[in-house]
Hints:
It is globular and about 95 Å long. The chain contains ten helices and 38 strands. Helices cover 19% and strands 39% of the residues. It has an eight-stranded mixed beta sheet with strand order 5-4-9-2-1-11-14-13, with helices on one face. The longest helix has 17 residues, at 2-18. It has 613 residues and is of the alpha+beta class.
Amino acid sequence: MKKLTLLILLTITLTANAQIQADAFVLKYNTDITIKNNKLTRSHFRSILINNKNGEKCGEIEIYSSPLKKVSNIKASISDINGNELRKISSSEFKKHDAIDDQTFYNDMKVQEYAVHFSSYPYVLNYSYDETEEQFMYIDYWMPVILDYIPTTSARLSLNVPLNYPINIRTSRNETVNPDTIDNTLMYKWNLEYEGLSKAEKFGVPLLSMMPYVKIVPLKFMYEEAGSMQSWKTYGNWEYNIINKRQELPLIETFTLDKVLENENDSLQMIKKLYHYLQDHTRYINISENTGGLIPHPASYVCTNKYGDCKALSNYFISLLKYIGVKAVYTSVYADHKIRKPYTSFPSQQFNHVIVCVPQRKDTIWLDCTSKLPFNYLGTFTQGRKVMLTEKDNTHFTSTPALQLQNVENHRDINITVDDDLQASLECNNTFRGEEFEDLAYIINAGKDDKDMFIRNEIFRDEIEVSKYEVAPHHRDSTSIHIKINASSSNVFTRYGNDIVLKTVSLSIPRMEQPDIRKYDVQIDFPIFKTDVQTYFIFDKFKMPTLPETQHIKSKYGEYQSSYKVVNNTLVVTKKFILMPCYVPRKQYQDFYQFISKVDETDRGNCIALSNK
C-alpha cells in the first residue's frame, strides 16, 4: 500500500509539473498467469486514479465470462490517495446480464458491470478478479490500456508455465525475455507503461499499432479438438478439419439449389446466382456460444435458421459451391477502416472476419458473405491486405485486390446558373464509387433522415444547400450509385463593391493538421479520386472574363489539376484531385502537408472576376 501511495503522489506531482489536465491515470495494471495441468488461470488487479467526473469513464468495470471462461473472486473498493479505504463495493452492486449488443443475436457470454460514482475527487478505484480456462488458443493478448487516451503508469505481466510447455511470444517492443526456472516452472515477467494517445488525427495509423502489448500462445492447444500453432500449416490443418466437418447440406437444400440453377451451365453465372441466393435468403447476425466465437456453425444451421455470422455464412457458401463442384477457400482477414498487417512470423488467430476466395482459371473471385454489396466486390474494409487461406496442408497468405483509381472515382457534373441577386442554382449529377458508394449503398434503404443527412452534409460543403435529390435505380451488382441533386448557394457569386467574383465549387480537399500539431504517422490505404465538370451559364449577364491559366500540382502523393475554357457560350471548369495510398512517417509529414495545403489553397482560390454587360 505504501508503494501505491507513493505512485499516486508521484503521478499527481508529474501531472502538476507537466501542467496536464488528466481525467484519470491507470496506476497499476497487473496480470498474473499460471498454467498447471493444462488449466489456465489469470489473476487481474487494476488501480485507477480518478481526478474528476470525466475520469469516471475509466471506472466503468466490465468483467466477461462464458462457459469456457469462468470468473471468480471479484473484489472492488474505493480509497483516497493516501491508500485509506473509503468503501467496499459489494458483489451485489455489480449488474450481471447477457453480453448482447446491437450486432449480436445470441451470445453465451455474460458480463458483470459496475459504474463507479463517488462524491469527492481525487479517489482511487481498486478491483481484482480471477479467470480460469481449460480450452484456449491464447494464453493472453495483454494490452495494459483502459482507454486509448488514458495513461498507464505501471503495468506488470507475469507468466508461470511448466518446463515442458512450449509457447510462442510476441511483444510490441520485439524484446526477448529470458525466464527464471524454479521447481520445473518457467517464470516470465514484463513491465510496461503507456503514455496515452492524443486525439484522433486525419488519416491516422490504427490505434492498436501504437499500444503496448504482449501476445502469448501455446504451441499445442485444445479448442474443440487438438491443434498446433507450431506453423501456419499446422494451425491451418486444425481449422480445415474443423470446417470440413461442418459442410454437409440437408437434402431439401440441394433440391432448392437445383431449382435456383435450373438451365444454367456457365460456372461463373452459377457462382453469381448462388451468391445472390445467399444475399436474398440469409442475413448476418453475430452468434457466439461455447466455441462458436472462433468456430463456424454447420452449413445445416444456416439452412435451417437463414442467418449466421461471417464464419457460418462463409462456410455455408463454400458448401453451396462444393455441391456444384466449385472449389472455394475459407479466408481469414482483419477487416477494418485501417489495414492491419498480420504477423506472419507468429502463427496464431489474428483475424476478425472471414470471406470466401473462389479461384478461377482466369481470375480469382472474392466474396464477403455478410455483405449486400455487388458480386466480387470487397470494398474498403477488406481490400488490399494480407489474408490467410485455409487449405489442407497448404494454408498460406495472399493479398486481396487493392482498390484502383477507377474503382474510387467520385465524379460530379454541375450545371450552374445565377439570378439577379447573385443566388446560384446548381443541378448536379453525381456518380459515387469506393467508400462513398459503400456508405450510400448501406443507407439507400434506410430512413429518409439518414439519406438526407448523408447527402446534405457529405456531398456538398461551402454553404451549398440541397433542396431535393433523386437516387437513380441501379443494378444490384453495379459498383456505383448515381444521384441527381438540386441545390442553391449564395457563396458562388459574391459582390465586392462594383466587382463580382465567381468562386468555383470546391472539391472538398482533406484538411490536415499543421506540422507542429501533428503527432503520428499518416496511413492512406486506398486512393481518393475526385473529378468535376462545372458548367456556368453566365454570359447572358456577364461579359467574357479573362480566364485563369491551367493549374497543375504534382507530387509523389498525388496530383491536382484545374482548367478553364469557353464552350458553346458557357464557362466550363474542369477539376481533378488524386491522393494515392501511402504511408508517411511523422518525420516526412512536412512534405505531405505542403502538398495537401497547396492543393487546398489552390482549389479554394479558384476565382474569376466578372463584369456586368
